[in-house]
Amino acid sequence: MTKDMTSGSPMKLILGFSVPLLFGFLFQQFYNLVDTLIVGRFLGVDALAAVGSTGSLNFLIIGFCMGVCNGFAIPLAHRFGAGDYKAMRAFMMNAVYLAVIFAAVMTVFTVAFCRPILQLMQTPENIIDDAYTYIVIIFAGIPATYLYNLVSGVIRSMGDSKTPLIFLALAAFVNIGLDLLLIIVFPMGVAGAALATVISQAFSGIACVIYSKRKFEILHTDEEERKVNKGYMKTLCGMGVPMGLQYSITAIGSVILQSAVNTLGSNAVASMTAGSKIGMFFCCPYDALGSTMATYGGQNVGAKKLDRLSGGLKAAGILGIGYSILAFVVLWLCGNHLAMFFVESAQAEVIANVRLFLVCNSAFYIPLAFVNIVRFLIQGMGYSKFAILAGVFEMAARTLVGFVFVPMFGYPAACFASPVAWIFADCFLFPAYFHVLKKTKKMLSEPVRTSVA
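^ that's the sequence the OP posted. Answer follows.
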């Protein structure tokens, strides 16, 4: 079922579209959380640290994949909003061709170089072998990551946020079952956790493909629409690559920060791992709002209804602020209890560090809300390159904390790295939004221009 977001109450549309997305992100984080929980409980703190030490590297590469696929979906949303379904299908096929190429190249290079990168990150010797085992399997599964994110992005570009959720929920249960099977029944260690993640994502991607081919007639292509179109590929790369780089540039700062934390020892790494996993779970509403605003912005620009953009920004902002206050209260009160899901109660230092991380981060969730809302709205409007600059600000902030403040103040400084990054990004994003809104109005007022893409 497709959804037109170019008419009706922005608050109602954004809430209705983002709730299924939220459940999708929650399921995704839930099975990532279960991975970490099972590893920490059944394999110990060192194994937990090993998986956690790969988190920023994982985000660097997998985040690029997700960003590229989200960017590929923007021209589709523009064409859907404009009612040009033939061009939308041609864009879709060219996005598929590009995704195959990207997936193949990235898989080869990441698998070949992940151990040297772990060494460069100063991964502790007692966990580097497990860290390598885990991340090399995740990187070998990059094609599965592209498959799910591309197909779900195509479906969401048409206003359907529910179908990808259904298959992601099924994948979550598959992942949990495989975790229990491959870690507890068949003691495969961290390799079992990685295999469970890859297999479950491949399952959700294949299921989305089969369902969309059967249920979405609007996606059925003819021979002409399946032709390689260099112009369309250029447009897709112009949207997808900047969005992918935005994730990766942001992640470079996280890699530098992780390298600094690695020097503090396994307990600090385990604390950051558990805290990050819990934090990512609580940050799912911001991811949902961001993805919603990309589709909302794309469809309304395609329909030339720019007056609706600011209304959408206001509605999303109200939702983000309200949730941020609630999340801070919950994490302030329950941080210790949440930490004990990952480690034994005897690990007092780790538990205290996890709570500190959660409280420091959640105190700045309002800036994070606007990072996602404004950034993805700008991307949906067709200005993906601005997201790279926002990512540069985040990278600079995390790099500053990692290089300067973590060596001086230790673990507490690392807890403030992301809040500083979010504030830096917002200082760029708000002026950027008003700039691109003005620029888009000018472009669409010219009779020869019909789209920003």
